[in-house]
Amino acid sequence: MARGARGEQGSARLAGALLGPATVLVLLVLVAPLALLFRYSLDKFDPSQLIIPAVTAENYISFVGSRFYLDILLRTIEVAAVSTALCVVFGAPVAYRLARTTSRYKSAMVLALMLPLFMGATARTVGWMILLSHGGVVNLTLRTLAGHSRFDLMYTPTAVIIGILSFNLPYMVLMLQAVFERIDISLEEAASGLGATPLRAFARVVGPLALPGLSIATILCFILAMNAYATPVLLGGPRFHMMAPQVYVEFASNNNWPLAASVAFVLMATTIALAVLANRLIPDRYRAP
Amino acid sequence: MDAARGGEVRAWRSAVPDRGSRLVGAGFWLLFAGGLVLIFLPLVLTVYLSFFDEKLIIFPPRAYTTQWYSEVIPHFASPLLTTLEVAAIAVPGSLLLGVPAGLALVRSDFRGKGAIATLLLAPLTVPLIAVGLAVYLFAVSVEEVTGAPLAGSFYVLVAGHLLVTTPWVVRLVVASLVGYDRSAEEAAASLGARPLTVFRRVTLPAMRQGLIAALLFSFIATFGELEMTLFLISPGMTTLPIALLGYLKYHIDPLIAATTTLQMVLIGSILAFIDRFVIRLGQLVR
């Protein structure tokens, strides 16, 4: 009995020693800095004196009260929502085919989808810049075919939506593929054996079973899109504003650290709130545990 | 009898596709193709453009060349070196921090374990743009108090990258140990092996795959990190993704396409290696 207790104590000490360094790292490089960031967001700012220590919600109030910043937030939500919706539309068919394929090249296909995921947003955007830039592929094709000489997608919200959609699509496909794979194919066979068309079998059998996984994948893609940085900077151009690039602009160009901190917190809070809201909107029986 | 005939009729109707279901089928394949184009077309074009013998993007090019590939490393030598220096510390460092933590999360049971696991994986979910700003401001504040020159220093850059890589290691070590049968360890212990010997001779070899995957994924994570690093660089100390971003703001040319292609080849071979010899990548998504 006594030995058992001592053994337990010893193993708790061992677990503490094993977990300690990593926990200290996260506390020191994530938790403490974020707490300080919040503190900064309550300071005042003056262009000549820079930061003036204070405890005020001024930055947040002026954010919500300013047409300029509110528009950036709304634009960010809009771009994230549209690109995420399109991500589901284009991602589901690819994921479904991938999940149901019996090809021996399936693992190569998964690999091909993982490659863009790990390439980083900057590198992935190069291809879209080639396609969309003035004199790029799309521009040139349209000029040859339709004679339009002034059709530039570069530096438009559409370009940013396409870029984010393309960036998040492999995530969506891989997550949904795992979801579809867990759904037994014999259920679909049973549905079609009973006379259901493929669409009906999908809508009535596969869809409801996939919904919990689909909702998680959708929310994750939305979060990624809300925080996009490189894509809006490169495809949206200098006059297109989204939240994550704005954090950097306030910090680096305007030197307004308190406002940069507030923008970061507004971004995080909005993202979390919308994710929670989206999860609430899903009927209980379809919600992931 | 009637019911059976009804079933037959319906089965027959579904065998011959009507216009509606053909339309649905066509729509399905259209979206399928669209999805693949959206993912892969930019990558294919990047590779294609990297062989253009032009200074700008001009279709069609005068000729094709491989000369851009020889200019990649000279042009981006300094940021590439910084990126590799950071990786040289962050990757082994994250293994030293993350492997013991992952082991403890799987093997021990204590109150608050769930909270610790959430905390250790949190860097994967917090927006890195906020983390970058926070870490920089924290470094400035500590510098103000202690006088240690932290802001814009290499140490803070590495600490930030450790934060990004360690959760990958924790996650992969946990994944490689969950469902692992402990009877081999128990057998070794009952035959008189000391705990450390059991760990070295039984547990560690069993974790080998997870460790290699952790090493490579943490390398990929630090190699491509952009948003947090933006705040932690200083003049003369830039990483590759940031140098690429800065270059791309003003140019889009075959040199950047060649750089991206090389990056694609590097990361593609790492992933193919993991998939072939270490762990089926498909299993990681689950």
Give the topology.
The complex is a heterodimer of chains A (289) and B (286).
Chain A: H1 2-41, E1 44-46, E2 50-52, H2 58-65, H3 67-100, H4 106-117, H5 121-132, H6 137-146, H7 157-181, H8 185-193, H9 198-226, H10 230-236, H11 243-252, H12 257-281
Antiparallel strand pairs in A: 1-2
Helix pairs in contact in A: 1-12, 3-7, 3-9, 4-7, 5-10, 7-9, 7-10, 8-9, 9-12, 11-12
Chain B: H1 2-15, H2 19-49, H3 67-75, H4 77-107, H5 113-121, H6 128-146, H7 154-177, H8 183-190, H9 195-224, H10 229-232, H11 240-250, H12 254-278, H13 281-285
Helix pairs in contact in B: 2-12, 3-12, 4-7, 4-9, 4-11, 7-9, 8-9, 9-12
Distance between the termini of chain B: 46 Å
Main pleated sheet of chain A: 2 strands, antiparallel
For the terminal residues of chain A, how far apart are their CA atoms?
38 Å
Structural class of chain B: mainly alpha
Counting DSSP H or I runs of 4 or more residues, the number of helices of chain A is 12
- Along the chain, the helix and strand elements of chain A come as HEEHHHHHHHHHHH
Could you report the average pLDDT of chain A, rounded to the nearest whole number?
85
Q: What is the number of domains of chain A?
A: 1
Which stretches of chain A of 5+ consecutive residues score pLDDT under 50?
Answer: none
- CATH domain fold name of the largest domain in chain B: MetI-like fold
Oligomer: heterodimer
**In CATH terms, what is the fold-level topology of chain A?**
MetI-like fold
Describe the structure.
The complex is a heterodimer of chains A (289) and B (286). Chain A is mostly helical and 289 residues long. In chain A, helix 1 crosses helix 12 and helix 8 runs antiparallel to helix 9. In chain A, strands 1-2 form a two-stranded antiparallel sheet. Chain A has a single domain, classed as MetI-like fold (Orthogonal Bundle). Helix content of chain B is 77%, strand content 0%. The radius of gyration of chain B is 26 Å and the shape is globular. The two termini of chain B are 46 Å apart. The chains are: A mainly alpha (289), B mainly alpha (286).
